[in-house]
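Notebook p. 47: complex prediction with magnesium ion.
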Amino acid sequence: MAGMDAAQQTPLPVGYRVLANHDISHQLAQRPDIAAALGGTPAQWHVRDVADGNLNSVFLVEGPNGGVCVKQSLPWVRVAKDDWPLSVERAFFESAYMQRTEPFALGLAPRLLHFDASLRMIVMERLRPHTILRQALIAGVQHPLAARAVAEFAASTLFHTSDIANPFERKADDVALFCKNHALQRITVDLVFIDPYTHNTRNRYVSPHLNAWARALREDGALKSAVARHRNNYLSKPQALLHGDLHSGSVMVTQDDTRVIDGEFAWVGPIGFDTGNFIGNLLLSWFAKASHRTDAQKRDAYRDWIAQQVQDFWQHFHDRFLAHWQGWRGPSDGYPASHFDPDADTTELRALKAEYLEDVWADTLAFAAIEMVRRCIGFAQVADFSSIQDPALRARVQAPALALARDMLVNPHHYRTVQTLLRSLTRHDLLRPDSTLPHQDELSHA
Ligand code: ADP
Ligand code: MG
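Predicted complex, structure tokens below:
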């Protein structure tokens, strides 16, 4: 936690104050463009607090002509308040991420309308009638376009901020800007990469049911070595500008629209961190569904559909990333045209592209597994599991997720393709009739 001190001490900007529901209309009225978009007079604007995330205040404002979404960072973690002070800088990084990726987001993110640097307040397009993808997955609703749209967003934003598509100076500017996102990187480093493998009061696994699992993770040298490799990979591989928190709770959907929100964890790092985060959360949702004991046929069909989304996501990401590369005629210091004629589809260039994507897959696999572990053991749990009321049942569906995640990290050579990963799901399926997966009773006697 020592590293958190610097983040906590960041002074508040001059003029900063925490906005309450009744302040919002007054703030928006100062901006003629936003006032016009809302229409009518401020007295006619209806403000609703919709914060359901871990960190910030979020308000939806409706006027006679339309709506906007207002997001303000607070000097603490919203769900932990006084116990966890946090720099308000994160709204700056979220707005910077929205700005930088806007040309490549292909309409798959809300539009940034305004950033108020004093109040650390973002005003953005209000999405309606969108729901959070995670909630849709929990409810068992299919959104057939969502995974492909997130893949499209990831492929385009990551490709266009990588060394493939930039002179190094442009990439270095991104590194220089986003490497200052200290407070949220401290959260990622601690909550994702360190805490789950230590005794830590912030860990929130189901106890006593998963005590043996938590102990096993702490004592597993091979696992901790794999995590160390990827923690260092995360810190020392500035491959592209990451969203940094690309899970199913950062995606809003309707049947025909998908948007990626909440880029406050932006960081220049390995591409596989974003793709792995998304895949890891789909897999968690697949495991959580095993807790549904009624209508087995419907449940199994939905789980098959989730598994298909993992495949669609990776395949589409892979194909779109390569398509952007194929069409790229701009500057590139990574693969300069003076070495590789972009119009000549040479064996060498094809081999380099395949190598690049294989490396992204290896990272994706590891970061997906690390995400799965931290969401079962660490501080920030996911609703897919926490909505399972019975703790014993929750632990029972989390144990096979942990078993798969461990194997993905320690034996990555078993998972060279997305297909092999998906085939392995049946081996780790709690619902398999002959399932011999570790059970918490057996583990606690281990
Ligand atoms: P946090 O960073 O605190 O996790 P999020 O950015 O995830 O906050 O937003 C919290 C919630 O606010 C989302 O789950 C969603 O319900 C709502 N929300 C966020 N952005 C928008 C938007 N542009 N339009 C409509 N609702 C939004
Ligand atoms: Mg957030």
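Notes: The beta strands are 46-49, 57-62, 67-72, 112-116, 121-125, 131-132, 240-242, 251-253, 258-260, 267-269. The pocket of magnesium ion (ligand 2) is lined by residues 53, 55, 245, 262, 264 (CB under 6 Å).
Next step: compare against the earlier run before touching the bench.
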